[in-house]
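Protein modeling request. Please complete all fields; requests missing the sequence field cannot be processed.
Requester role: graduate student
Desired output: 3D structure, token encoding
Chains: 1
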Amino acid sequence: MPYPETLATKPRCIFFTDFDGTITLRDSNDWLTDNLGYGVEKRRQENVDVLEDKKSFRESFQSMLDSVKTPFPECIKLLCENITLDPYFNDFYQWSRKNDVPVIVLSSGMTPIIRGLLVHLIGSEANDIEIVSNEVVDKPPKTKDQEGGWTVKFHDDSSFGHDKSLTIRPYAKHFEARPNEPRPTLFYAGDGVSDLSAARETDLLFAKKDHDLVVYCEREGVPFTVFENWESILETTKAIFEGKTTVKKLAAESAEKAQK
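Delivered output (260 residues):
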């Protein structure tokens, strides 16, 4: 459910998360580019250019997808055969369902691919996950089921193509305007350059170990908690949910580790 309907159940936590490379072990768009498009070397250079502010994520992503000519239905089929979930994400998702913790996917990928992979890997209950992402459209005069017949339709006009902060900020502003309402803890998990727009927007940021988001956060002084898989995310989120620790305490611990 989109804002403000998400708040109707008065959740104690709301968990925003990237999809590719965060929920999944590999990035589906990278896989398409590496295997069906212009390849690993050029794709990795595009990522570096974004991280170093030489190019916008929107420009880089458009370039990647333009290099993939395979019909879109075939792309989804191949991704379902090659992309796998983090082994602990389903445990996290089942816990979130039992505890009324909304999980909202904020992705710079494409909704049909994300929905298709989630349902393929988790089952029909994955249809309950809200997805805010880009869409896929025909590339006239061709259609999506033809070679070279599809392209991305970006979510917004930002340099990211999808500025993830635009989805998160209304929640923070809602409670700023209503200081007497119990405020849920806002979480975000991500791994790469597509997550830069969301990095400063939540109470606790999980950044995947040895990935570009960690590099960005260290460079910019953005507080974060490192994760390797969703086992540690579930453990930390449960501890906060159950009152065994606080975001403030975790932030202090992360800052102390960063100084060592």
